[in-house]
Design brief:
Number of helices: 6
CATH architecture of the largest domain: 2-Layer Sandwich
Helix content: 25-40%
Radius of gyration: 19 Å
Shape: elongated
Distance between the termini: 47 Å
Largest sheet: 4 strands, antiparallel
Order of helices and strands: HEEEHEEEEHEHHH
Strand content: 25-35%
Amino acid sequence: MAEEILETQEKELIKKTVKISRVSKVVKGGKRMSFTAICVVGDGEGHVGVAKCKGSDVRIALDKAFKKAEQNMVKINVHGTTIPHTVIGRQCRSFVLMKPARPGTGIIASQPVRAVLEACGINDVLTKCIGSRNIMNVCFATFKGLLQLKRPDEKLTGKKEKVSKEEKGE
């Protein structure tokens, strides 16, 4: 009975709020205020998601962003507590360079990059933000960089082996 309960419970997700900002829209009757939230969700074991959402209230914006980030979670190829190889993530004019580091180095990164890496479960990495330092673009550049990571065995061979049409059964 106890084993069934443990299996049905969801793993505890790491939820981080990167930034909340108040935005306004000028309309005929005056200004209409709303809030924007950038959030990161991960399980600390190689799954991470990033999202940005708007809402009329801070709580609504946060809930929407966390829900969307959970839906956008993807598996990242990690190598122990670091990344398998050097990678550059790009979003608009923001570039994030990420390099693997020795165990015990820690996360050398800015706050938006640190949030994404901690949620993913990466503990040892060196990073550098190049170009625009816009928080939203830096978050998404980090996320895109992590998506480019390949397993160590894939990196050595260069490419995945192509499967011929005969082997597929076509």
